[in-house]
Amino acid sequence: FPDRRGMATGMAIMGFGGGAMIGAPLADRLMNDFKTPTSVGVWETFLTMGAIYFVFMMIGAFRYRIPP
User: Fold this and answer.
1) How far is Cα 31 from Cα 36, in angstroms, rounded to an integer?
2) 39 SS3 class
3) CB of 27 closer than 8 Å to CB of 41
4) How far apart are the C-alpha atoms of 19 and 52, rounded to whole Å?
5) What CA–CA distance (Å, rounded) separates 62 from 27?
6) Around 50, how many Cα atoms within 13 Å sit in the side-chain half-sphere?
7) What predicted TM-score, i.e. pTM, was given to this entire model?
8) What whole-number distance in Å separates Cα of residue 39 and Cα of residue 28?
9) Which residues lie closer than 8 Å to 7 by C-beta, 6 or more apart?
10) Positive or negative CA dihedral for 52, 47, 17, 13?
11) Could you report the per-residue pLDDT of 17-65, keeping only the tens digit for each?
């Protein structure tokens, strides 16, 4: 967005709030799904969320095009 730097900044800041709004309930749900009597499921949740974020990042990276 070379012509709209303010819009790019706003979208980046929106991503922080949107990520927390989606990530927190997802993490809670995953920890409830992965918990056992001896573990609360934190490392499984981190691994799962990392894989999900990686997939979304790769989709975004491969769809990115440099304008002519």
Assistant:
1) 10
2) strand
3) no
4) 12
5) 26
6) 6
7) 0.73
8) 14
9) 1
10) negative
11) 888 899 999 999 999 999 999 999 999 999 999 999 999 999 989 988 8
